[in-house]
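Record minuted for completeness.

…
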Amino acid sequence: MQKQDYLIRQIDQLGSILGKILYDLLGLKIENKLHLGVSTTQIQLKKALGISNFTSIPSEDFLEIIQEKNILSNDSLETLADILFILAEEIAYKEDRADEMHKLFERAHIIYQYLENIESTYSLNRHYKMDKIRSHFMNAYKDVIKKKA
């Protein structure tokens, strides 16, 4: 029983940490200073989850590796996806980081899709973000086709 209580406290604590990271990022986004929070966010995510670089995890293994830690609730997963989404949006217009941006969007989409499949409640916000990510990938695909032509 004590072990279960400890685990629940850790899950709640991690959810709080992710919520604080998201809150800070949204505050910086409103102030147009999001670039200041990107590296800090990556450091905080590394401390909280023990993952140094989300883009280095292969797409097909991403969700499994995240869930392997068994410390993220569905709400925390969604918060993590929101953080990855915001980070991807921040670097969207930096050509030298296009690959990183695609990977962050892709990982956010993987989490959103997973939550969409397992949860019975429809989330308009999640659906909007998934559509935005799909639109991003369609535009990137069109750009690649234009460059080849």
Observations:
- The chain has one domain: 2-148.
- The chain has a mean pLDDT of 75.
- Residues 2-148 form one domain.
